[in-house]
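S.,

As promised, the PLZ run. Input:
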Amino acid sequence: MGGPALSQRRHLVTEIPGPVSRDLLERRQRSVARGLSHVLPVFVTAAGGGVLIDADGNSLIDFSSGIAVTSVGNSADLVVSRVSEQVARFTHTCFMVVPYEGYVEVCEELNRITPGSHEKRSALVNSGAEAVENAVKIARHATGRQAVVVFDHAYHGRTNLTMAMTAKNMPYKDGFGPFAGEVYRVPMAYPFRWPGGPAKCADEALDVACGLIHAQVGENRVAAIVIEPIQGEGGFIVPPPGFLPGLADYCREHGIIFIADEIQSGFCRTGDWFACDHEQVVPDLVTTAKGIAGGLPLAGVTGRAEIMDSVHAGGLGGTFGGNPVACAAALGAIETMTKEDLPAAARRIGEVMLPRLRKLAERHPVIGDIRGRGAMIAIEMVKPGTIEPDAATTSKVAKACHAAGLIVLTCGTYGNVVRFLPPLVISPDLLNEGLDVLEEAFSQI
Ligand code: PLZ
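Predicted complex:
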């Protein structure tokens, strides 16, 4: 059994991965496509709170949450009870064939918790990429325009349109083209790497983006600007204050739909319900997924009623979108976030992590930048004294953490960022133990 009752401790009984996981990995090599890779090939048998138990009986600390998904913890009580009840009642009708209340309830919740108090509508789909695809479809339909503007370092998914929107070639795009058209890319406000320095980053990045749109696309041809309010896969890049509000104003001025991709940053991760809340930015459309349903596959597009409802009946859909079991899970996850005040829990995680990481950076000049908000925190690794990315050391640190039973992820266009995404329900002791492991990993490199 997994769930929050699991003993919240790190405990290794074999090397990582152990013999049972290694056997399973061999079976996996013979049966599963090579294109799917693993951060750490231990096979999980149970998980809950801040730990994963593997097939060899090791208990590992989880600083990944399955890429920001299990924010309420694995097999959280309210997710398990709601899912169990729903799965015993009915498993599927297809919302387009015969509707059910759970779908409506999730949409009501999304309309309530996403930024802005205006009239909203939502649509549910299966994955983050599908949510982004649908947001773009809706924006094009509503505006009658085609162009979509995205940013350097962006990640929006692996489908054809979202590959075009994603910035990084390897491993996401290489050899998979041709990509969808009418996608235009502008520089991201990336304070650590902004040529004019972090203080000028917000204004200059806004000027550059607007200038490029004017010169190369034409404002009146742009259906949507899509941005992750804190970039995820691209390196946990936090735009400087003022950049997102400035972009939102620019969109409003030119009739461009402002789409916030909150798939990684949403659902309490950054210490607010959504990362846009931090600067009171109100997007026209918001895409959600990951943390929405405690690990079950569900995603959504939420936005202004007049934009969402510009699409003709039958224009949106899909067989599985808003599956009743996934909706039940979402209602359990959202209830947990509310009852346990997980935005506050995320802020507390940041308050523990940031000072410890800053101290670590004093001892290890390979850490060039520490950034993030709440429980979406990262360190960017460079050749000391420069901003030259150091992917090799990044990978060494991650491997040392894995070997010691701490699951961390890397990210970044240059592969030089270690990111931390613990479940928001992680205990303070386990969080601190994870940071002890990280410090030990640094002392080994
Ligand atoms: N938008 C901002 O972070 C998914 C990708 C993992 P899906 N990020 C994890 C991988 O290597 O495939 C993501 C995201 C943002 C969209 C997506 C896409 O969400 O549910 O993976 O399709």
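The mean pLDDT is 98. The radius of gyration is 21 Å.

- D.
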